[in-house]
Amino acid sequence: MAIFVFKLQSLLDLRLREEQSAQREMALLMREKAEIDERLRRHQRAIEDGKQSLREDLVGMVDVRRLRLQTHAAFGVMRDAQGAAIALAGLARKIENARILHQAARAKRRAVEMLKEKRHTEWLREQDRREVALLDELAIAASHGQKEWMP
């Protein structure tokens, strides 16, 4: 039996590798985004804890030195949170670009796959046509053979 050979298989393999590479890049960026999101949540919790501690320290006897230290610490946490937010904004652009590249690579791969499917369907039709032609030939040959043997 004949075997279907797609002449552009190397191109399809290349397109698949490009798509997988784009997908890996996007996954790395998404992991980085998740890490920054977690950092922002930790900073937010630290800010909330600092506010609560500051409120508690304002009751009763006030230790000015302790308040100053807490304020400096709070500013440091807010500065870190702002840095993380800026990094997240820059990462959002990178993620969008990676998503566009991934979609383009996917579309290119899919186009070659569709061509392969079309060529395979055509090949199957041609195989069916050849088989029918061969069976017709055999039937004709068999009928001629029977007529020659008839008395």
Q: Provide the succession of SSEs.
A: HH
H/I helix tally: 2
What share of residues is helical?
over 70%
Estimated radius of gyration:
35 Å
Poorly predicted runs are none
Oligomer: single chain
Query: Overall 3D geometry?
Result: rod-shaped
Task: Describe the protein's topology.
Blueprint: H1 9-57, H2 64-149
Helix pairs in contact: 1-2
Question: What does this protein structure show overall?
Answer:
This protein is mostly helical. The protein has one domain. Helices cover 89% and strands 0% of the residues. It contains 2 helices and no strands. Helix 1 (9-57) packs antiparallel against helix 2 (64-149). The longest helix has 86 residues, at 64-149. The radius of gyration is 35 Å and the shape is rod-shaped. The model has no long low-confidence stretch (mean pLDDT 90).
In short:
This protein is mainly α. It has two helices and no strands.
Keywords:
rod-shaped, mainly alpha, single chain, 151 residues
